[in-house]
Amino acid sequence: MSVMILILSVLAAAGLTTGLIAVAWLLLSTRKNGNKIQRSQEEAAASVSNAQEEQRRILLAAQEEALRIREAGDQEIKNQRRELNRMERRHTQKEEQLDQRSSGLDHQESEIERRESIAQSALQQAEDVKEQHTRELERIASLTISEARDIVLKRSEDEASHELAKRYYELEKEHQLRADDNARRIITLAINRLATDVVSESTTSVVPLPNDEMKGRLIGREGRNIRALEAQTGVDIIVDDTPGIVTLSCFDPVRREIAKLALTQLVRDGRIQPARIEESVTRAIRDIEETMWKAATGKTCWTHSIEVGLLAGMLASEVGANVQTARAGGLLHDIGKAMTHEIPGPHAEIGYDLTTRNGVASIVTHCVLEHHDDEHSSIESFLVAAADGISAARPGARKESIEQYTRRLKELEDTANSFAGVQRAFAIQAGREIRVMVSPTDVDDIACASLARDIAGKVSQELQFPGQIKVTVIRETREESIAR
Predict the structure, then answer these.
(1) What is the model's pLDDT at position 42?
(2) Residue 325 CB coordination number (10 Å)
(3) Measured distance between the N- and C-terminal CA atoms of the chain, rounded to whole angstroms
(4) H or E element at residue 296
(5) Which CA distances in Å does 435 have to 76, 254, 285, 402, 462?
(6) What SMART domains does the database record attribute to this sequence (predicted)?
(7) 15 pairs with which residues across the strands?
(8) What pLDDT, on the 0 to 100 scale, is given for residue 200?
(9) Which of 84, 119, 375, 433 could make an SS bond with 470 (beta carbons 3.0 to 4.6 A apart)?
């Protein structure tokens, strides 16, 4: 490339020189007069001199450029040769490393073959020793290998049978525990879903009021109305900040129901005064004697049957049994109690006969018949019995503590009624107070204090009770006159 540039530069300079010479010759040949010819000659000579100077300059520049290009090419060639030498050295090193690795692999392969040979020899020796020991054992034990194998298998079978029986026992216990836990979970879920009031009407009742103003009218001036109602019924009347209700507390459900009926009538009528209270209580006593109900498990049979039906249905839904059958069996399980005053016999059998005669499904009638039995003909019958037990075992139902509590309050009232001059005695405040109503003609004001001390002394001597009991003797004097 540098040679071509040099040649082109020379040719360009030569062409330029030739052109200048031609121009100068033309000028000289056409010169018309001497001065013009002389000037032309001078100009031609100057042009030739300039052309020669330009030619030298161009040639010098071309030579310098060619020299620079050649030096750059030489440097590039040197760099390429240096890189080739470096790559050749690396290639040589890699070849040497590969040769070394190949030599190492050959050595390892030889070592492995040697060790395999040693292992094969040792294995063969072990087999020989094993065979020799086997023959020696057969000679000593007088048993063949098959006989020894049978003995070992028999022993292993016995051990395996023992382990299997042990494992079966453990699994059975584990499954029993899981079944118990699952049963508890199902019963707990059913009880939680039922969401019934476990605080039943065993000791308290609630009377709704139309407004809170009625509380003031119920209390009366200086509390005379509420005192009169408590004295007539023997029920503790609780008037608190709870809006719209008044709570009646008494261990005796009959007294509590009498007070509830009387108070409901007074609230409905709106006329609340001692004379009206006495009249309402008398009417409530007459009504309650006519409408006494049977009670079971601390509540009415109806609410108990509803609770058992709901519980049985929820238990059936948890275990996959027939929900409708379980509910029907729970609702009807105590229906025989409604006929026990007319038909002798257990209420379960009476209920079974009654439901059978009225066309109830056989599976439901058997739930009624078997709800107190240990054997059950269906899963629904078992669930009805379980629901009945759960309902009876709720807090406040069929508890010995309730019976003892009721008996203690009854004994407390009987102790007070045993004194002369006592008309009525009521245990209130959960047995922490006994209110004694005395005859004003038989007991005067001075004797009231002595009677209170005597009653307290007899209660302390004959009865056992926690804490202390307050004895209140009330003497009420009435004077009547007729206006004509």
Answers:
(1) 76
(2) 23
(3) 161
(4) strand 295-296
(5) 129, 18, 20, 21, 18
(6) HDc, KH
(7) none
(8) 46
(9) 433
Say if CB 121 and CB 114 are below 8 A apart.
no
Rounded Cα–Cα distance for residues 50 and 41 (Å): 14
Average pLDDT score over residue span 312-325: 88
How many helices (H) and strands (E) are present in the chain, helices listed first?
A: 14, 8
Among 193-202, 237-246, 411-420, name the one with the lowest average pLDDT.
Answer: 193-202
The pLDDT assigned to 394 comes to 61
Q: pLDDT, tens digit, for every residue of 430-456?
A: 778 889 989 888 888 878 888 888 898
Residues listed for the chain: 484
H or E stretch covering 299: strand 299-300
CA distance 359 to 484: 68
Flag whether pLDDT at 29 surpasses 50: yes
Contact 383, 326 (CB under 8 A): yes
Whether 6 and 62 have beta carbons less than 8 Å apart is answered as yes
Alpha-carbon distance values, 293 to 2, 119, 212, 289, 353 (Å) = 134, 99, 32, 10, 22
The share of the chain scoring above pLDDT 70, in percent, equals 82
Q: If residue 238 lies in a helix (H) or strand (E), which one and from where to where?
A: strand 236-238
Q: pLDDT class for 30, splitting at 50, 70, 90? A: low
Tell me how far apart the alpha carbons of residues 118 and 112 are, in angstroms, rounded to a whole number.
10
CA distances from 127 to 109, 124, 302, 447 (A): 27, 5, 88, 118
* C-alpha–C-alpha distance, residues 452 and 470, integer Å: 9
Q: Give the pair of three-digit tokens for residue 269.
A: 């009528």
Alpha helices, H only, 210-319: 213-219, 224-233, 253-269, 274-290, 301-319
Taking a C-beta distance cutoff of 8 angstroms, is the pair 310, 196 a contact?
yes
Does residue 197 surpass a pLDDT of 60? Answer: no
**pTM, two decimal places:** 0.37
Cα separation, 100 vs 97, in Å, equals 5
Residue 329 pLDDT? 92
Which residue, chain included where needed, has tokens 């042009």? Answer: 47
User: Does pLDDT of 343 surpass 70?
Assistant: yes
